[in-house]
Specification:
By secondary structure, chain A is mostly helical. Chain A contains 14 helices and no strands. In chain A, α3 packs parallel to α5 and α7 packs parallel to α9. Chain B has a domain of 142 residues. Helix content of chain B is 73%, strand content 3%. A 3-stranded mixed β-sheet of chain B has the order 1-3-2. The longest helix of chain B is centred in the C-terminal third of the chain and has 25 residues. Chain B: One of its GO terms (molecular function) is protein farnesyltransferase activity.
């Protein structure tokens, strides 16, 4: 069987940051903060975070800080909750949360909660359960969950549950593995997993595995490496991961590697990118693959990073 | 401007390219489709349009943009340059605009900057549709406008962008923002809701299983009157029948059908509401059965049936109660329910036969059918006894082993659980 070519992935991630001349990288630069989080977390899972300059990254992250307390996807752009979580996660990876004005960042996030408990992504008001997860994850890392109405936030998430046991972005929206991760993750962090019908959701999630071993994110879709993260982490949180064939999934992820130049793609023989490289490595981490550090399924950060945060005052 | 000098072209050339692009957008406001095309396609497109290659002027515009019949093609050769320039010019203008607003400068200066921001943000978004800051800049400026036409024009622009980037989340989100603004300021325009719904169907045609597009259509439901809901249910039927693997479209139908059930959840619902809903439910069940039998092995169709059957049992199985039964609660097995389940067992049996031809599809059909029945059993444990009775031990074993082949751990868990319950 093919092995994980960890060194090549490390090199690919380090190189990806330097290649700025493709159209893909130009149209992605508004979400550079997300890209940095994916790349850096993958590096840390492969125990190679030391190969990037901590000071350089941290000072760039801080150039994206906005006076409102939120972070932008890149320097000079508008802040959004999506990039605020990534920024906080990056600082957590480097053990640099102390440089944040925690009061201000947490007020920015808490300020996005609406009357019905839901969260907007920014001042323009789009609502999505992804933003609920982000707010809860971010405030939990900053130890400021008391700044929001957790009960209302949980009630809103529960109102997005469908008859198939899954969750969508707003009440009545179609179940989607990415949204399910967000809802289950938020419920896990706040200690509210009893709201999930674990057998029913586990059923829907394990039906995402196809004959190749790969997972899809919705019925009738092709398998995609990124769902190794969204589906798998959800199954772990609800304690139903034994309902899928883990060995076949490991093989599927390994088959999506570019064995020559590093990087992981969505499906075997497709072009690699940083997003799928992260989710492939994170999936292997959840599958306890040898040589990859353990990742926390709710916080999406290495377990040692989360332990460091939780056990420090 | 330091960064701009990179590459082989001079600074003047670059701005020229962006100027040309913006000039095309300005001079042809009826452009309704945009796309990125490979330079080799230019010759082909020109030939089709009846231009001979000799008379083509060899200037940059000709090699960079193609604009005929309100269709705009942008050469992939110039994309990177154009996108970088547009972003730079936009961010500079937006920064200046924000400074001016803060400093409360003269209104004519703000006006000029405002139109600069609108012009350049449009260019950026045509090239990089998820560039949130550019959409935000437009929202900021639009929120100061009070004529409906500014918002209608914005719907046109975002529609144009969707023609190239049908999955762009920021673009769909921007449309919702516009509609919300219009609803707040000029009352909810019903014809806009209808047009939006048609737009999703058109986009769905070219971009299959597009979650963001169908989510948008589901979002519209909250703005619909009950008449519109019924119309939409009719209108989307044909499309769904032609795209039986598109689960998102069936989810849209589920959303509409739940809207029809809503009045039944409140006290004071009339017998008429219930009869109507019952009729619609039966029609959908019959239609779904036709599709299941015609298009063998389609997961989306069987998942739709899970939803339809469970709701039918919950809402219409018990004649005497006004309130729908909670799932998991004991179901009163009246005659209609027994008949319904009998028919479902027949469907299961016929779906379990696997002929030699098209082996894979029929294998999938058997798996989906078995999983469907077991899924219902999880919600209604009484069903288990009926299955044992109707199918007999041998056939039931066959149903279970079909699932065991694909999902053995799930089955193991379920059987232990269900047998204990029943």
């Amino acid at each position: 069987m093919v092995q994980l070519v960890a060194d090549k992935h490390v090199r690919y991630i380090l190189m990806a940051e330097k290649k700025k001349e493709s159209f893909e990288s130009v149209v992605m630069d508004h979400l550079r903060m997300n890209g940095a989080y994916w790349g850096l977390t993958a590096l840390d899972l492969l125990e190679k975070l030391g190969s990037v300059s901590k000071d350089e990254v941290v000072s760039w992250v801080m150039t994206c800080y906005h006076e409102s307390g939120g972070f932008a996807g890149n320097t000079g752009h508008d802040p959004h909750i999506l990039y605020t979580l990534s920024a906080v996660q990056i600082l957590a990876l480097f053990d640099k949360l102390d440089i944040l004005d925690v009061g201000k960042v947490s007020s920015y996030v808490a300020g996005l909660q609406n009357e019905d408990g839901s969260f907007s992504g920014d001042i323009w008001g789009e609502i999505d359960t992804r933003f609920s997860y982000i707010a809860i994850c971010c405030l939990s890392i900053l130890k400021c969950l008391d700044k929001i109405n957790v009960k209302k936030a949980v009630d809103y998430i529960v109102s997005c549950k469908n008859l198939d046991g899954g969750f969508g972005c707003t009440p009545g929206a179609e179940s989607h593995a990415g949204q399910i991760f967000c809802c289950v993750g938020a419920l896990a962090i706040t200690g509210n997993l009893h709201h999930v019908d674990k057998d029913l959701l586990g059923w829907w999630l394990c039906e995402r595995q196809g004959k190749t071993g790969g997972l899809n994110g919705r019925p009738e879709k092709l398998p995609d490496v990124c769902y190794s993260w969204w589906v798998l982490s959800s199954l772990i949180m609800i304690d139903r991961v034994h309902w899928i064939d883990k060995a076949k999934l490991v093989k599927f992820i390994l088959d999506c590697q570019d064995l020559d130049n590093g990087g992981i793609s969505d499906r075997p023989d497709d072009a690699v990118d940083i997003f799928h490289t992260y989710f492939g490595v994170a999936g292997l981490s959840l599958l306890e693959y040898h040589g990859v550090k353990a990742i926390d399924p709710a916080y999406a950060l290495p377990v040692d990073v989360i332990n460091r945060i939780i056990f420090t005052k | 401007m330091g960064k701009m000098g990179e590459g082989s072209c001079s600074e003047e050339d670059l701005f020229d390219l962006l100027n040309q692009f913006e000039h095309i957008l300005e001079s042809d406001p009826l452009i309704d489709e945009v796309g990125f095309i490979h330079p080799s396609q230019f010759t082909l497109l020109n030939k089709e349009a009846g231009f001979s290659s000799e008379v083509q002027p060899d200037n940059r515009t000709w090699r960079s943009f193609w604009n005929q019949d309100h269709k705009l093609g942008i050469s992939t050769d110039v994309l990177i340059r154009l996108c970088k320039d547009a972003k730079h010019v936009f961010l500079t203008a937006f920064e200046a605009y924000k400074c001016d607003v803060k400093a409360c400068s003269e209104s004519c200066s703000i006006c000029t900057l405002e139109s600069e921001v609108m012009k350049h943000s449009q260019s950026v978004l045509m090239l990089s549709s998820d560039f949130g800051t550019a959409w935000n800049a437009r929202k900021l400026i639009l929120s100061k406008k009070d004529q409906p036409c500014a918002f209608t024009e914005e719907l046109r622009l975002s529609r144009l962008i969707l023609s190239n980037c049908p999955k762009s989340e920021a673009t769909w989100s921007h449309r919702r923002w516009i509609i919300k603004m219009m609803a707040q300021r000029f009352s909810t325009p019903q014809e806009i809701i209808t047009k939006e719904s048609e737009l999703v169907e058109a986009v769905g045609e070219r971009s299959k299983m597009n979650y963001r597009a169908w989510y948008h259509r589901c979002w519209l439901v909250s703005y619909m009157t009950i008449e519109q809901v019924l119309q939409e249910l009719n209108k989307s039927k044909r499309w769904a029948g032609l795209h039986v693997a598109d689960s998102s479209c069936f989810h849209y139908r589920r959303r509409l059908m739940l809207k029809i059930l809503e009045p039944l959840n409140v006290k004071g619902s009339t017998a008429y509401d219930k009869t109507e809903a019952h009729k619609i439910w039966m029609e959908e069940l019959d239609w779904n059965k036709e599709l299941v039998e015609r298009y063998v092995g389609r997961e989306a169709l069987w998942l739709h049936r899970r939803f339809l059957s469970l709701n039918w049992i919950m809402y219409f199985a018990c004649n005497h109660s006004d309130v729908p039964s909670e799932t998991g609660q004991s179901i009163i097995m009246n005659e209609e329910t027994v008949n319904f389940i009998d028919n479902e067992i027949l469907l299961l049996e016929s779906s379990m036969t696997i002929p030699d031809t098209k082996f894979e599809d029929f294998q999938a059909q058997a798996l989906h059918a078995a999983a469907y029945m077991l899924w219902l059993t999880k919600h209604i444990p009484e069903l288990w006894r009926m299955l044992e009775e109707k199918l007999g031990t041998e056939k039931l074993k066959c149903v279970l082993s079909t699932i065991a082949q694909e999902r053995s751990s799930l089955l193991h868990h379920l059987v232990n659980h269900t047998v204990n319950l029943a």
